[in-house]
């Protein structure tokens, strides 16, 4: 569970984390305490989720030393300026009661990403952010950001799962040394993922569930995963993915599930590709 990836700035990030999108603020503290107690050491929140404060309070109550937990949040800010972006990140730190974040992402292209990025870069220099990255950036928006950047994004968090495997984006990010982090690693529970015959039959051969096979498929490609569940037993299940490996043949079978398009049609510039020609 403590396996890490070394980001392009030398910072180590756990390959497995716990995401709290749509975790109600009233239960977030309990869920994050559960996740930490079963061994998760990476947490993924966002300003947009309105539960940053509860993630922060769970971190403080857990008794786990701050430097053993990798904490990510994401900025959401329209009409951004350099000054407003800086102030906005400091708002996240304040809500969470933290001196620094391990990773701050631009949640999706906000329209004034150059100014936001300059603010992020300065916050790295000031010690408020250890790493910076983006989310839902595809080649046009990603390349435009990097053109004027002095720090290359450490991470791009994008929808990635067995039904939308992101092979062209993975290749594109590799050119920059930007790690791919999957959001929706369990396809948000859609498309019958938990009863998919390919995933369940591979799982049966390893004594694992379809969910564990789907997560392992990503992990085995060096993709960071942050599955979400409010149930402690599923948190444990989703973390038990480091004690087995998929064979090349099994990886190929899962590769055949790729549809080449995202589940919900969002974000609008998500790549569509023909998985048969990848
Ligand atoms: P997910 O793919 O993690 O799926 C979560 C769903 O699967 C939930 O309904 C849960 O009940 C169910 N589930 C989880 N484990 C299960 C198991 N073992 N067996 C059966 N059902 C199980 O979806 P997600 O929460 O959208 O994505 C994970 C995280 O990614 C989020 O919590 C959030 O932190 C992040 N995220 C980021 C963005 C972004 O735009 N950057 C968008 C969506 C999510």
Describe this structure in words.
The protein is of the alpha/beta class and 278 residues long. The chain is 38% helix and 13% strand. The protein contains 10 helices and 10 strands. The chain has helices at residues 25-37, 52-62, 82-96, 113-125, 139-147, 167-176, 197-206, 210-219, 232-239, 248-255, and strands at 4-6, 12-14, 18-19, 42-44, 70-75, 103-106, 132-135, 155-159, 179-183, 224-225. Helix 4 links the parallel strand 6 (103-106) and strand 7 (132-135). The radius of gyration is 18 Å and the shape is globular. The protein starts with a strand and ends in a 23-residue tail after the last helix. The model has no long low-confidence stretch (mean pLDDT 96). The chain binds nicotinamide-adenine-dinucleotide.
Task: Summarize this structure briefly.
With 278 residues, the protein is an alpha/beta fold. It has 10 helices and 10 strands.
């Amino acid at each position: 569970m403590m396996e890490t990836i070394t980001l392009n700035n030398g910072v180590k990030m756990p390959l497995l984390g716990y995401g709290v999108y749509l975790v109600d603020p009233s239960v977030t503290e309990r869920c994050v305490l559960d996740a930490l107690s079963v061994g998760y050491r990476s947490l993924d929140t966002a300003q947009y989720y309105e539960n940053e404060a509860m993630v922060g309070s769970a971190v403080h109550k857990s008794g786990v030393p701050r430097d053993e937990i990798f904490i990510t949040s994401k900025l959401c800010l329209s009409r951004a300026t350099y000054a407003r972006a800086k102030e906005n990140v400091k708002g996240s730190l304040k809500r969470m009661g933290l001196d620094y974040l391990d990773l701050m992402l631009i949640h999706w292209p906000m329209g004034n990403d150059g100014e936001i990025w300059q603010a992020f870069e300065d916050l790295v220099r000031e010690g408020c952010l250890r790493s910076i990255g983006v989310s839902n950036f595809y080649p046009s928006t990603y390349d435009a950001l990097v053109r004027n950047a002095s720090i290359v994004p450490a991470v791009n968090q994008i929808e990635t799962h067995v039904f939308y495997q992101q092979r062209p984006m993975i290749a594109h990010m590799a050119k920059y040394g930007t790690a791919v982090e999957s959001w929706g690693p369990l396809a948000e529970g859609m498309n019958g993922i938990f009863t998919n015959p390919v995933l369940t039959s591979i799982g049966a051969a390893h004594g694992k569930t379809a969910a564990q096979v789907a997560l392992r498929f990503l992990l085995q490609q060096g993709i960071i995963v942050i599955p979400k569940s409010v149930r402690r037993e599923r948190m444990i299940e989703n973390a038990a993915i480091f004690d087995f490996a998929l064979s090349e043949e099994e990886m190929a079978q899962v590769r055949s599930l790729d549809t080449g398009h995202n589940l919900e049609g969002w974000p609008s510039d998500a790549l569509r590709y023909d998985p048969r020609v990848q």
